[in-house]
Amino acid sequence: MLDIIRDKPFLVAILAGGFAQFVKVISFLIAEKRVNYKRLVQTDGTPNMHSTTFSALAIAVGIKAGFGSLTFAFAVCLAAIILVDTMNVKNATSRQAEAIWLLMERLRKDKPTTTAANTGLSYTPLDVFTGVILGVVFAFLIY
Asked: How far apart are the first and last CA of the chain?
């Protein structure tokens, strides 16, 4: 168990994900002029924590095992699956939340609106892309 904690690619990935969350707190502080510590545990927003973590992991594995290794190829494939699923699953969840919100409004017999409230669940391609860039840069700087 202690071997994985000492493994540098693992540490780089964990630190990159934590750094992404810290960046969210700082960006919220700059934009809103107040501290929101909930941003440390929320996964939505820019940069995306999932893409940062797995991009950093893939690059750290590439540095350690070699960019032509089977291990690096596996890490890149895993990162790609995570990136695609991050976009698709969160967007599907957001659409479901909007549909439930509209249904609840109609059941209350209020005036239903044509647009649902912002659920804050969707990731934009920019969120994922900035996470990838942050993860790659972080891995090269830390490793």
From this structure: 21
